[in-house]
Amino acid sequence: MNKAGCLDRCAGGPIAVVYPEGTWYxxxxxxxxxxxxxxxxKNGEVVERLLTPPEIGR
Length: 58
Hints:
This protein is of the alpha+beta class. It has one domain. 22% of the residues lie in helices and 14% in strands. The protein is built from one helix and two strands; from the N terminus they run E-E-H. Strands 1-2 form a two-stranded antiparallel sheet. A hairpin with a 4-residue loop joins strand 1 (15-18) and strand 2. The chain is globular. The mean pLDDT is 86.
């Protein structure tokens, strides 16, 4: 992740996006971020429960 403000989705709360897929995540705490890193970044598996609905923050 890099610090890029709210990535034009400020209303969605804390936001992270994984490129090049463009998968948007909302997270609550460090353990959610750890899960995104382990599941998505290391193993290529999307963390469905943390996906940001497309209409949020747009």
